[in-house]
C-alpha cells in the first residue's frame, strides 16, 4: 500500500472542505483533499445549486403555462408548453458538472491535491483512502480538517425506495409525478414541493408542527401560505406520517391528522424532507477519539478545533446552522489558523434564505426572538407593493415586505427579514448591515438605487424611524 | 467671579521641576481646599499635591509625563461665590469633551457655548452593559483579535457606541491593551502574538531609565564576584529565627550582609561615598545608609536603612521589613527613598549565579546577592562536603575604588559572614 504524508488533510469536498483546501493551498501548505462523491458536496451536486436550477426552470414553465391561458401583459402563447423532464434534469446536470469541474481546477490552481476516494481514519491523524481504481493509499497528516457534511434523514417507517424519495432523488426524476406528497414543510420540502407545483404536479404537504418554516414567524410565512392556497396546495399541519403501502401502482401514505385520526393519501411519489443529520458514520470517526455534542455533531470550539490537537471540523458535521456559507467561512478560517493566522468564527449572524415562492431571507433576530432576549425594540415594515420596481416585476400582489427589528435605545439593527420575489438577492446588504453594527440611520442615510428592491430596505428603516416616504407614516 | 491661579508648588529641597503623573480632577470639577488634585514625581518619590482654595477647575496645564517647572501656573480655579451655575446640558457636554479630548482643555465652561441637545434621531451613547457583544465591524474585530484585545473593554465613540478603527488606535496607544489582554501566556493554544505596543516611558520608569543611562555612560565600573560560604551563618540564622520573639521580624540573609558592611566599610571609607565627577568631589560618609533595591508594582525603588551601623541585627531586619512594605504599597516617603551611601540589590531568591549591577549614582559601591545553593566543596582534609554557598556580585566606581580595595572590602565582608560570631564582637 502506498503511503503519503501532508501538512493538511481535508476530508470532504463540499462547500466547507474545498474552500479550506483552496485556502490552505494558497497559503503554501502541502494539502490533500479526499472526496468520493464528486467535489462540491451536497451543495453543488444534490442541494443548493441543482435545486435552484430546478426552481428556475419550474418558474419559467409556470410563466409560459400562464401565458397559454391568459394574455396578461399582452403576451399570449397559442398552446401550453410541453415539459421534457429528462431534458430539464440533463440541463441541471450540465450546470452541476460545470461547477464541480471548476472546483477541481480551482484546487489544482491553488496547489491542493484531490484524491478521489473514501477515507477511513485509523487514528486521528491517519486514514486509508480506498480509491476509485481499487487501490489504497495511507495518508498521515499534521493537520486534519473534517468536512464530511450531512445526509438526509430517513424515517424508519418511510424507507427510501422507488416511491418514497428524498431530496436527492427528487432532483433526478426523469418524469414529472402527477401527484406528490411532501412530508415536512421546512425549507427543503417547501422549495421542492413548490417547484413541482409550478411544473404542474398536484402537491400535498404533511407537516408535524403547527406551521410551515418553523424557524420563521407567521408574518413572514404568510405570503408563502397565500401562494400555496392560491395554487391549491393542501398543507396538513400537526399531522404525523405513520407508514407507507402500495396500491394500484401508487404509494399510499398513512398519517395521523391533527385530531388524532388516521388518514391516508395516495401519490405517485412521497418526498420525505424532514431534515438533515451530520455524516458521522463510515469514515472511522470512532477511531479518532473526538468529543461529540449529544452524539449528533462533532464538538468544536470557536476556532473549529475538536478535542484532538490539530484536528478541526467544519460545516454541517459540527451542527447548526447547516448552511453552505457557514461551512465556507469556517473552512477558510481553519486553513488560515493552520497557517498561523489568528482567526475566530464569531459572526454576529449568518443569513439564511429559502427559495420558496415567494422567497424568504432572514438575518439576525426576529422581533419575538429579540423580545425573548430582553431587548426593547422598534420595528419597521415596508410592503414591497409600494415599490415601483416590484410592480414592474409582476410581484405586487404576493404580499412581500421588508421588516427591520432594531433596539429602541440606540437604533442598532438586531434583525432583518424579508419575504417576496427575488428578495434572496437582498441578503448581502442585510448581512452587511448587521455584521457592521449598522443603526437605522445608517441604512436610511445610505442612498439606495432607484428603481431596485433595495429601496424597500431603506424605506423599512425610515418606517422604523417613523417617517417613510412611500407609505403613510405609521400612527404612533 | 475671580480666578485663582494655582502654581506648581515647591515640593522639596532644591527641586526645580516635577513630572506630572496624574490629574485627579478635570475641567468643570468642583474642588475644595486640601483636596488631593494632582500627583507629581520628583527625584524618586511621588508627591500628592493638595488644592489651595475652594472653587471650580477651569483649566489644567500639562499632561501626564510632562515636566513642569516649579512656579508654573498649572491649574486655574474659578473661586466660589459668583460663578454662574451651568445648566445640565452644557455641563454634560463639557464633561464629554473633557473625556474625549483628554487633558488639553482650553475652554472655560462659563464661556463655552451650550452644545445643541442631541437630535432625537441620534440617541445618546450608553455604556455597554456587561456581557453585551461589542458593536464593531468585522475588520475592527479582526484587528482586535490580532492585537489580543477583548473588544468588550474598548470604549466605542461611534454611533451607538460602535468601536471604530480610531478607537482601537487610541486604546492601544493608551496602553489599555495590557489590561485587556486575554489568553496569552496562560493558554495552551499555540498562535503567533503579533501585537506591538508603543508606550510612553514616563514617571518612575523614565527616572530609572535616565539614572541607569547616566550611570552606565559616565562611570567606568569594576565588577568583582566572590563566593561566600554561609553554612555557619545559615545555622545561626535558623537558630535565631527559631528563638526570636513574635514581635521580631524574621531574619533573612540581607540583615547579616548589612551588618557585615557596617563592620567592613570603615577600613575602605572611599567605598561608602558619593562622587561628583564634574566637580571632582568625593564625599565620604561615616554612617552607613544602606539602600535596598526593591521590585515594586510601580517599578524599581530603593528604600534606605539609615545609619545601619547604629542598629542591631533585629533592628535592621525590622527596618528592612517596614521599608519594603512601604515601597511596595507606594507609601514610602521621599526621605525614605533617598540618602543612601551604598546599595544592596538581591535577586538571589529568583536564582542566578552572577549579576553586574549598575551603580546607584552618585554612590560608588553596589553589592548584588545571588542565589544560595548547596554545593560540594573540599574540606581541609580533602574530603568532599556539602556547603551552603552564595555569590556576592559587586560593582564599584573604578575612578574612586581601586580593584585592590574593592577586593579587600569584599574579602573582609566574606570574613564576617563566614565567621558570623565576629559580626557581633
How many separate domains of chain B? 3
Helix count of chain B? 9
- What is the molecular shape of chain B? globular
CATH superfamily of the largest domain in chain A: FAD/NAD(P)-binding domain
Spatial order of strands in the largest sheet of chain A = 1-2-3-4-5
- Biggest interface, chains and residue tallies: A-B, 18 and 22 residues
| Span between termini of chain B | 72 Å
**Quaternary state, please?**
heterodimer
User: At the first level of CATH, what is the class of the largest domain in chain B?
Assistant: Alpha Beta
Q: What is the CATH architecture descriptor of the largest domain in chain B?
A: 2-Layer Sandwich
Question: Uncertain segments of chain A of ≥5 residues (pLDDT<50)?
Answer: none
CATH homologous superfamily annotation of the largest domain in chain B:
Chloramphenicol acetyltransferase-like domain
Fraction in helix of chain A: 25-40%
> In CATH's first tier, which class of the largest domain in chain A applies?
Alpha Beta
Structural class of chain B: alpha+beta
DSSP strand count of chain B:
18
User: Would you identify the CATH architecture of the largest domain in chain A?
Assistant: 3-Layer(bba) Sandwich
Tell me the Rg of chain A in angstroms. Answer: 24 Å
**Based on helices, strands and strand pairing, what is the structural class of chain A?**
alpha/beta
Provide the β-strand percentage band of chain B.
15-25%
Polypeptide structure, described:
The complex is a heterodimer of chains A (476) and B (425). With 476 residues, chain A is α/β, with parallel strands linked by helices. Chain A has three domains: 2-46 and 90-152 and 277-338, FAD/NAD(P)-binding domain, CATH 3.50.50.60; 164-274, FAD/NAD(P)-binding domain, CATH 3.50.50.60; 352-465, FAD/NAD-linked reductase, C-terminal dimerisation domain (Enolase-like, domain 1), CATH 3.30.390.30. Helix content of chain A is 30%, strand content 27%. Chain A contains 13 helices and 23 strands. Chain A has helices spanning 17-26, 41-46, 48-69, 85-110, 167-170, 187-198, 218-230, 324-338, 367-372, 388-392, 427-435, 440-444, 455-465; strands at 2-11, 31-35, 112-123, 126-131, 136-146, 150-152, 164-165, 179-183, 202-206, 234-236, 240-247, 250-256, 262-267, 269-272, 276-278, 292-293, 297-298, 311-313, 352-354, 359-364, 377-383, 401-407, 413-420. Chain A has a five-stranded mixed barrel with strand order 1-2-3-4-5. In chain A, strands 7-14-8-9-10 form a five-stranded parallel β-sheet. In chain A, a hairpin with a 3-residue loop joins strand 16 and strand 17 (297-298). Chain A is globular, with a radius of gyration of 24 Å. The mean pLDDT of chain A is 96. Helix content of chain B is 26%, strand content 24%. In chain B, helix 7 crosses helix 8 and helix 7 (253-264) packs across helix 9 (403-418). In chain B, the strands form five sheets. Chain B has a six-stranded mixed β-sheet with strand order 9-18-17-16-12-15, covered by helices on one side. Chain B contains nine helices and 18 strands. Classes of the chains: A alpha/beta (476), B alpha+beta (425). Chain A binds chain B through residues 337, 340, 342-344, 346, 348, 409-412, 435-437, 439, 441-442, 465, and chain B through 121-123, 125-126, 133, 135-138, 141-142, 145-146, 158-162, 191-192, 194.
